Fold Protein Hikeshi.
Amino acid sequence: MFGCLVAGRLVQTDAQQVASDKFVFNLPDYESVNHVVVFMLGTVPFPVGMGGAVYFSFPDPAAGQVWQLLGFITNEKPSAIFKISGLKAGVGGEHPFGMMAPQATSVAQVGVAIEALDQLAQQTPISSATVSTVDSFTQFTQKMLDSLYNFSLSYAVTQAQMIPNATETFIPASTILRWYENFQRRMAQNPSFWKTIHTSPQCLAPGRKESAPTHNATAQSTPVSAYHCCGCPGCTSPAMVLSAHNTAQQEIA
């Protein structure tokens, strides 16, 4: 009825039926496992109004068998992936498996208990088992944006507080905020947009003589559709980027 899958291993379909409504998979060498997928084989559906609660248990001789609720599978959602690498031994709650025979210290267990959907809806899975839908690069980029924005704003002063200094260049805080919001918006629309941002040290904002790309070969060979702006006010609209690029091509010619 159920299957269990760990990346790099064969699919397990040999669940032990420890009760009429409870099934358990043994998970050898669990220390090397980051995620586990539990799914229905498609041969036998859940009875109407029923689903499966998925649990995980560490082999912990000191604390006894402690089960942690990972999540659920149903006829409408017949598979689910769970992160187990962040779970902590000895932490758990109520579970339907009772006392079972202890396992070897390197073997964990994944259990599926068939329960009423109404009962499943009242249970809260452990949060650290939820797999993020955001990839690690996007998470890193968001953290980088937040860090730069917060770091820059920590040095913000009002105009009355500013001390004239000929060696310093001051940037309005609103400019940092605008860049921050523009970058966030573009990441949400296309996480790979940064690959086509031009690498010229000057931006392509219209009206700036220094805005022409400094690398002639790049400017002549790069299609207009591949240009993206740096995020400054003069570069935020596609029309402005196109206009600037055409101007740059004329200057180069």
The mean pLDDT is 75. The chain has two domains: 2-129, 136-252.
